[in-house]
Amino acid sequence: MGKIYLYNTLKRKISPFAPLEKKSVKMYACGPTVYNFAHIGNLRTYIFEDILKRTLLYNGLRVLHVMNITDVGHLTSDSDFGEDKMQKAARRESQPATAETVMQIAQKYTAAFLKDIANLNIITPDKLTKATDHIVEMIELNQIIQKNGYAYETSSALYFDTRKLKEYGELARVNFDAMQKTARAETDPEKKNQSDFALWFKTVGKHENHVLRWDSPWGTGFPGWHIECSAMSIKHLGKRFDIHCGGIDHIPVHHTNERAQNIAAMGGPVVNFWCHGEFLVIGKSEKMAKSGENFITLNTLIKKGFNPLSYRYMALLTHYRKPLQFTWEGLEASQNASNNFYDQFLSLEGDGGINKNYQQKFLKAVNDDLNIPRALALAWDLLKDKKINSGDKKATILKFDEVFGLKLSETRKIEIPKEIMELAAKRDFLRQEKKWDDADDLRKQVEERGFKIKDTDSGFEVTKE
Ligand SMILES: [Zn+2]
């Protein structure tokens, strides 16, 4: 194990990281709100978190990784405006929003999410915790926050009183007065401060028709989005844990509010390191949209014949704290580069040992705030290094892949032509739409050309017959 350095958003600097408990890291990652497919920008954050976890494991640490699934309480705005995203999705998919249809939506998109992360070779979190399974814990935490004097009740909600907490805004580095000046389209006149946020929504007024609802000391209602993550992380990882991660979009509202709740309830900070991944941008600066042409999912890439791991490879080429520029040409180039990487790896023969010199440099790169672009460049240097024998190269690169996660150990030397992959992907979609006859036609076409399709938990595999 080497010395690990990570950027802590709270301190705005890179600091040495060591687990609070010897050898064991407790890590919480904000998971998806399961109202739609994840887009590749969302998935970039999960790749970053996977790299972080793999780096900790590479250093010989154990990692307990908890991720939540939000199936209630996340409104269309990250602040307290709009409608519950789950409920809106149930209506979008032309069903009346009932508790049952909302839970069906949750199941559908949770399954899609798990398939995406399997396709990207992201290690499944040790625990996936659903918000609707933790309502009791959320109510209890809200009661503690209220008892400690940080909450007040109005006719529509239980609010967190942000003025009461001097640390409020520390994570986002925004002072209290500045936070009050942000103009909002909707405002609850009963709120004491603009930045106050709901710990519990009552099913009255605009939330009168909210279908998922529970009894609470503040009347029937549903939890705020932020309390979910505080309640689930504390329940599964304890009152003090090592790392909380997510996308940078979580810094100003979600994580700021989570941190405030933690301090108000526990009397001090719960999280040791706050780690955040940058956005994916389309072209030069455009953030990925939630719908329309700029809404690109992993399935979009697969349909176009790309291997999902070529997107993973693309993400590895940019440091997680820099915006990832996405273009189709860029993805094509990454697919070619990763294919080249696989080819070079497969051409290595014989057994050997791990090269100490490269191994040391690699550890230094990944432990330097996850410098994966440098680590990948080092792997290429090793492949080209004439002084190292083939067997040693193979053993060393295979070891590096514990962090890269490019599935090198499973790569066989078979070229699957792009048009075959496209046919197989099309067949998979037809199957999902239950168009069995059309799907069978495509399977026959693939088989006639000497390839075989095998269906797996994470999708499908194509092999040469
Ligand atoms: Zn969260």
Short structural summary:
Helices cover 42% and strands 17% of the residues. It is an alpha/beta fold and 465 residues long. It has a five-stranded parallel sheet with strand order 5-4-3-10-11, with helices on both faces. A four-stranded antiparallel sheet has the order 6-7-8-9. The chain has a three-stranded mixed sheet with strand order 13-12-14.
Principal-axis shape: globular
The third-level CATH topology of the largest domain is Rossmann fold
Number of separate domains: 3
Query: Which oligomeric state applies?
Result: single chain
Please report the distance between the alpha carbons of the first and last residues: 43 Å
Q: Which class of secondary structure composition applies to the elements?
A: alpha/beta
CATH homologous superfamily assignment of the largest domain: HUPs
Measured on Cα atoms, how large is the radius of gyration?
24 Å
Unreliable residue runs: none
Mean of the pLDDT scores?
91
| Residue share in β-strands | 15-25%
* CATH architectural designation of the largest domain: 3-Layer(aba) Sandwich
Present as ligands are: zinc ion
CATH class descriptor of the largest domain: Alpha Beta
Q: Which strand order does the major sheet show?
A: 5-4-3-10-11
What proportion of the residues is helical, as a percent range? 40-55%
How many extended strands?
16
Main pleated sheet: 5 strands, parallel
Number of helices: 15
Overview of the molecule:
With 465 residues, the chain is of the alpha/beta class. It folds into 3 domains: 4-277, Rossmann fold (3-Layer(aba) Sandwich); 281-410, Four Helix Bundle (Hemerythrin (Met), subunit A) (Up-down Bundle); 418-464, no CATH class. It is built from 15 helices and 16 strands. Strands 5-4-3-10-11 form a 5-stranded parallel β-sheet, sandwiched between helices. α1 links the parallel β3 and β4. The longest helix has 21 residues, at 99-119. Bound molecules: zinc ion. The site of zinc ion has 3 residues, from loops.
